[in-house]
Amino acid sequence: MRVLVTGGAGYVGSVCAAELLSLGHEVVVLDDLSTGNRDAVPEGARFIEGNLLDDSAAALEGVDAVIHCAARSLVGESVEQPAEYWQGNVVSTLALLEAMRSAGVRNIVFSSTAATYGEPEQVPITEDMPTRPTNTYGATKLAIDQAITSYCVAYGFAATSLRYFNVAGAHLGHGENRVVETHLIPLVLQVAAGHREEIKVFGDNWPTPDGTCVRDYIHVGDLADAHVLALESNEPGVHRIFNLGSGEGFSVQEVIDVCREVTGHEIPASLAPRRAGDPATLIASSALAENELGWKPKRTELRTVVADAWDFLGSLGDAAHSARR
Ligand code: UFG
Questions:
Q1: Nearest CA to 50 among 60, 65, 40, 42?
Q2: How far is the CA of 253 from the centre of ligand 1 (A)?
Q3: Closest CA to 164 of 212, 202, 220, 120
Q4: In 3D, which of 132, 152, 138, 174 has the Cα closest to residue 45?
Q5: 166 CB neighbour count, 10 Å cutoff
């Protein structure tokens, strides 16, 4: 297959592109490099620097299927700058879908998110639970899911939305390398590497066993497997939506402890106020993906996720560290 990976210079996109290449597929990457890195585009992929609004049609030439990862994806920023998110996520994706319709390319896997559910009534979260996003990021991803559903019904698109929980780790030499980092595991590891003084723990009085927030960390290599399985099994007229997590929750404190074990560093931590919009606990049920996609996460140990992220951080040059803000 020849697959267009939008956002293929970003974290999940570059891993998916590398996975597809390793399986013998051809890959075209479309990325405007607004948050991605040119260096993250895997060798062997054709790279088009451009945006979804102007360049989707050209990028789709000769393409059989699309993995759509390009997006703005910071929860806090989405609340402060909603226009960037409605334009950058929803309007841009509608342009991509229209370009796909014109080109007759109807097979798509979309990067959706657990943030579409908002504060869950219970965990683990299943796909039939209410979608009540508590931030603009989640709202834009939910709007796109709904647009894709109607494109499947009316135009015969063959689609899967994958609702990621907390993605982490590295795979095939690709990992998290953002200029502005807000995610727990890379931040903790940057402390271990001596690039930051300490990690701030956002609240220790949540209704969880140790008082810190609980999340479901999924290895990015397992996530890439799910994308490939979804692409290969999409059916015209059908929009499938699957949660993807490892099914186990770890608290912020547990994550820091595992990072201490893996890195052998002390990792100073201090208590900070709760971060606005954080739910206490997010854990996925991935039973539907396991049953219907035949997906089985292989790297479910948090230690493996952290060790792979740590190796990746060590592989980055000084330029990557000094570029961070
Ligand atoms: N945290 C800290 N200190 C930090 C950073 C994070 O204590 O410096 C805590 C957060 O409060 C949260 C946990 O670590 O409890 C995980 O935070 P992340 O920022 O790593 O991830 P989130 O759970 O906020 O968000 C992730 C994705 C979103 C997605 C969401 C849905 O980044 O894109 O999961 O589950 F929407």
A1: 60
A2: 13
A3: 220
A4: 174
A5: 20
Question: Which residues does residue 65 pair with via DSSP β-bridges, in sequence order?
Answer: 3, 107
Can you give the pLDDT at residue 267?
98
Tell me the C-alpha distance between 20 and 37, whole Å.
19
Tokens of 285: 């049920």
137, 151, 164, 217: which one is catalytic? Answer: 137
| Ligand 1 atom 21: residue of nearest CA | 183
Using CB distances shorter than 6 Å, the residues near ligand 1 are 73, 75, 113-115, 165-166, 182-184, 187, 199-202, 213, 215, 252, 275, 278, 282
- pLDDT tens-place string over residues 81-109: 999 999 999 999 999 999 999 999 999 99
CA-nearest residue for atom 6, ligand 1, is 184
Token digits of residue 218: 């999924």
Query: Active-site residue 137, yes or no?
Result: yes
Cα 22 to middle of ligand 1, angstroms: 30
Nearest CA to ligand 1 atom 4: 184
pLDDT digit string, tens, across residues 156-189: 999 999 999 999 999 999 999 998 999 999 999 9
Closest by CA to 246, choosing from 319, 288, 300, is 300
Backbone angles phi, psi at 296, to 5 degrees: -135, 115
Atom of ligand 1 nearest to the CA of 113: 36
CA distance 52 to 56: 5
Predicted TM-score of the model (pTM): 0.96
128 Cβ contact list (under 8 Å, min separation 6): none
Contact call for residues 115 and 150 (beta carbons, < 8 A): no
